Amino acid sequence: MAIKTLAVQVDVYDQLERFKQPKESFSKAIGRLLEKQGVPKKPKHSTGRAIYEYMNGPDAPEPLTDKEAEIMYSVIREHRENPSWPRRDLS
Q1: Nearest Cα to 39, choosing from 31, 27, 29?
Q2: What are the tens digits of pLDDT across the range 6-34?
Q3: Which of the four, 21, 31, 39, 87, has the lowest number of CB atoms within 10 Å?
Q4: Cα-Cα-Cα-Cα dihedral of 5, 6, 7, 9, to 10°?
């Protein structure tokens, strides 16, 4: 785990020392304060893992209907066949 040094004023340090639980680290106490304020934590997983968890979690969107999937496929197919800009050979 990476560690960073943080400078705070003495009165803030004293407040934090009174706020933290016995045997609780300052990092944990600051984390608790931030959580109470609703500051989101940095995701621990890669983007792919986060997407997987979202798609398999309670807030996952409903799967596409056959009609919605066909519409999406037709739009993709149309754009592949008739691109809005000319294709260029980049080799």
Answers
A1: 31
A2: 899 999 999 999 999 999 999 999 999 99
A3: 87
A4: -150
Domain count, the chain: 1
Does the pTM surpass 0.85? The reply is no
* Contact yes or no for 21/29 (Cβ under 8 A): yes
The verdict on residue 9 lying in a domain is: no
H or E stretch at 30: helix 26-36
| Encoded amino acid at 3, one letter | I
Residue 17 is encoded by which pair of tokens?
A: 């020392």
Contact (Cβ atoms closer than 8 angstroms) between residue 20 and residue 28? yes
